[in-house]
Amino acid sequence: MCEWRDKTLRNDCYTARVWKMERRTNLPREEQDAAYRTALEADQTSERAEREAARGRMRQDKALALGDEPGKGPDVTQVLIRFPNGERKRRRFESNTKVQTLYAYVDSLGVLETEEYSLITNFPRTVSGRDKESMSLKDAGIQ
Description:
single chain; 143 residues; alpha+beta; two-stranded antiparallel sheet; two-stranded antiparallel ribbon; 2 helices; 4 strands; 50% helix; Ubiquitin-like_domsf; ubiquitin binding; UBX_domain-protein; ubl conjugation pathway; UBX domain-containing protein
């Protein structure tokens, strides 16, 4: 083991013994920490899966609530949605459809990771936030 010839060697031996004792004492704590981290990761994975499933059901419900796309006509508005990732989606709506339905359509696509967004037209530039959900597309300037 350690020899006690000089003070430095004595300190090194003492440090080595303390480190071994701490290692034996800390081993159960490290095992508990590892078990906790494993359980936490499993819980987080489960919660993510539940949130994704709920989001998928919500998107499906909103898509079903939209109904069929109307054909071309004088009281029909075609909307092109451009998403931040560059993706584009087109759909026709009756002009008297509420802006809320347009939000439901965007939500049903599942492209956006957030639920806080606004609909913006190019020309004339108008912003249709959630405060305009009760307005018709025509009244909101979305034509």
